[in-house]
Design a protein that fits this description.
The protein is 60% helix and 2% strand. By secondary structure, it is mostly helical. A hairpin with a 5-residue loop joins β4 and β5. The strands form two sheets. The chain has a three-stranded antiparallel beta sheet. Strands 4-5 form a two-stranded antiparallel ribbon. The C terminus is likely disordered. The longest helix is centred in the first third of the chain and has 34 residues.
């Protein structure tokens, strides 16, 4: 009768499955899963274990896909990660990989607390508990080794700090640090070592430990319907599928959905490429903030207590819970269990809160965070607009005037000059002793020289030896002898002509042409200044190409040149005088180029002129012209 309802399978139809079962015994393990029952009924609290397992799978799959494009070297890592981010799919994939690692740590913490509360570590599940506890620090290390792989400033700074913590281990610490770094400092070999750990050794260790953990889970936590009579449970047994499986799947979908939404919306962060010359205040990820805060109280020789002893004590305390369960009375065991959980949660939570709170109230740190985020955005912007050279992404910001210009100005110029607008936005100095260079070469900035009050004020010659020189006297006499509105109109034309020399105004405009005629004619500027083939050098700066990049390079290189201030130079040093041995100069050719490009960028209030290219006659490249000027001067001396 049964053969008519369920006809016997044919040998041919199941031959392959039978062949496979004879070799791997898969039907045995499948039966365990299919026949699992729930003695205590289904629960949402059980879903954490399933989510953890599948997040590990997601991490491995997304990591394998990222490996197809990632390049593990200091010169190419950042560029390859940036390339991944350029496509929506790549950006989403990297985001899922990044945020899944954070979700993994959160869920692991929740899962451990749940296991402690329900005492799932009791005999015979000791190995389930121990392997689970060992998996937690292993996954943390796995995550840590992945953070620096993008070769970002943040990631490399973090691994530098973590390596120093490792070096604090007694006896073997320095040896471990040297193995991790591949030398005394973080470098290209460090990235190779981290890559090996992240995609090779640690996945193997985690997989092996997971295998033991799952084997013990199946062995001691699974009840098959055939053995249900041993459980002495009167209530009907519910099968694992679908009662618990549906809950697991629902929780997983919620977690993965949240991760996917965050990844699609924001993607994984990509800070600026690593550069030891860039300012940065390293901070660990949120899950190590407690350790960062604890190190404040254990410094020097006692740091080892914070970084090694305290974590080891907590890990050991959790490890011995199965032993305490056997040795202590139930009430005492419950108190110990609650004490360990409360102590860990309170310590972790309070130290983490203090760490974030201290940083939140630290205005200097907050400013550095904003500045670093601006640098990171600038690096990504540059990477989108230009090719990354063979020396890597580090050159993006090193050669960028907007990034390096303020730093060079602060280092070499800000002891005398300010570079700030009326609201002190920019590089302001407490006591300016030389002209404010904000907007140098623009019409507005030049008009300040033609203002009786401004020229002798602190933003121009007020704190210099030129406060009462011929220029200021000439301006005063012009206003004393001429109709003010008419004179203002003429001076505006001259300012426009000089701004055209700098490239801020169209060279062929009628205003610029009229200004040039006034400059060499009625206003008699060439009585002191040289302009084109009019006037001579030696009395005042040459106005030919005034405030252009070529002119500024010449001035900064040698302000005592007859072309500029000659013997009347007011304490400004020569930053690039020696063309034969440029290594002895205060500024290299590259630094000079960056500084001048940054100084001559248009301020916001002069952007009306931006985009109007100057139509002045072509000039030789400023570096070549400057070199020729200096060579002539050296020969003449």
């Amino acid at each position: 009768m049964s053969s008519e309802v369920n006809p016997p399978r044919t040998v041919e139809k199941y031959a392959l499955l039978d062949w496979l079962d004879r070799r791997v015994n898969y039907r045995h393990y499948l039966a365990i899963l299919c026949q699992r029952v729930l003695p205590d009924g289904p629960s949402w609290s059980y879903t954490s274990a399933s989510c953890l397992l599948w997040l590990l799978v997601i991490e491995c799959v997304t990591g394998l896909l990222l490996m197809s494009t990632y390049s593990p070297s200091m010169a190419s890592a950042w560029a390859s990660v940036n390339f991944i981010d350029q496509s929506s799919a790549g950006r989403f994939l990297r985001g899922v990989h990044h945020y899944s690692s954070h979700a993994l740590i959160i869920l692991f913490g929740i899962h451990i607390v749940r296991v402690i509360i329900i005492r799932a570590y009791r005999a015979p599940r000791e190995l389930v508990w121990i392997t689970g506890l060992l998996l937690f620090p292993l996954i943390l290390v796995w995550t840590i080794t992945g953070n620096p792989l993008a070769a970002t400033q943040k990631g490399i700074a973090q691994i530098q700090v973590e390596g120093n913590i490792l070096a604090a281990t007694p006896v073997v610490g320095p040896w471990f640090q040297r193995i991790l770094f591949g030398g005394d400092d973080v470098g290209n070999l460090t990235l190779t070592r981290l890559y090996f750990l992240h995609v090779g050794l640690l996945p193997l260790l985690v997989s092996g430990l997971c295998f033991v953990h799952l084997h013990q889970v199946i062995k001691h936590n699974s009840y098959r319907r055939n053995f249900a009579s041993d459980l002495s449970i009167s209530a009907p047994l519910l099968p694992y599928w679908p009662y618990q499986s549906v809950r697991n799947l629902t929780a997983l979908l919620l977690v993965v959905g949240a991760i996917s939404g965050i990844s699609w919306q924001w993607g994984a962060p990509l800070p600026a490429p690593a550069d030891p010359d860039l300012p940065f205040s390293p901070r660990p990820e949120w899950y190590f903030r407690w350790l960062f805060e604890l190190r404040r109280y254990f410094t020097g020789d006692t740091e080892f207590i914070a970084t090694h002893v305290v974590p080891a004590v907590f890990l050991a305390a959790f490890m011995i819970m199965p032993i305490l369960d056997r040795l202590l009375p139930p009430r005492a065991e419950r108190l110990c269990r609650l004490f360990f959980v409360a102590a860990f949660a309170t310590g972790w939570g309070s130290l983490t809160f203090l760490s974030f709170s201290n940083d939140w109230n630290d205005r200097e740190y907050q400013a550095s965070v904003v500045a670093f985020e601006q640098m990171s955005e600038r690096a990504r912007e540059l990477a989108r607009s230009e090719a990354i050279g063979s020396n890597g992404a580090i050159e993006l910001l090193r050669h960028d005037p907007l990034t390096q210009g303020p730093r060079l100005f602060a280092r070499h110029c800000a002891s005398c000059h300010a570079m700030a607008d009326a609201g002190d936005q920019g590089t302001a100095v407490a006591e300016s002793t030389a002209p404010n260079l904000y907007g140098i070469g623009s019409t507005k900035w030049i008009m300040g020289f033609f203002d009786v009050d401004q020229i002798s004020g602190s933003n121009y010659f007020g704190n210099t030896a030129f406060k009462n020189n011929e220029m200021t006297e000439h301006i005063r006499s012009l206003f004393a002898e001429n109709d003010r509105p008419a004179l203002q109109n003429k001076l505006m034309a001259v300012a426009t002509a000089l701004a055209a020399e700098a490239g801020h105004e169209p060279y062929q405009s009628s205003d610029a042409q009229r200004g040039r005629e006034l400059l060499v004619g009625e206003l008699k500027c060439t009585d002191c200044h040289k302009f084109g083939n009019q006037g001579s050098l030696g009395s005042a700066p040459d106005l030919t190409g005034y405030a252009s990049r070529e002119w500024l390079v010449g001035l900064i290189s040698n302000p005592s040149s007859p072309r500029f201030y000659g013997d009347r130079n007011d304490r400004m040093p020569s930053f690039s005088l020696d063309q034969t041995h440029p290594e002895f100069n205060l500024l290299s050719t590259l630094e000079m180029d960056i500084l001048v490009k940054w100084m001559t960028r248009l301020p916001d209030d002069a952007r009306v002129a931006e985009g109007r290219k100057a139509q002045r006659p072509a000039q030789p490249p400023f570096q070549e012209s400057t070199a020729q000027t200096i060579a002539v001067e050296q020969n003449s001396n």
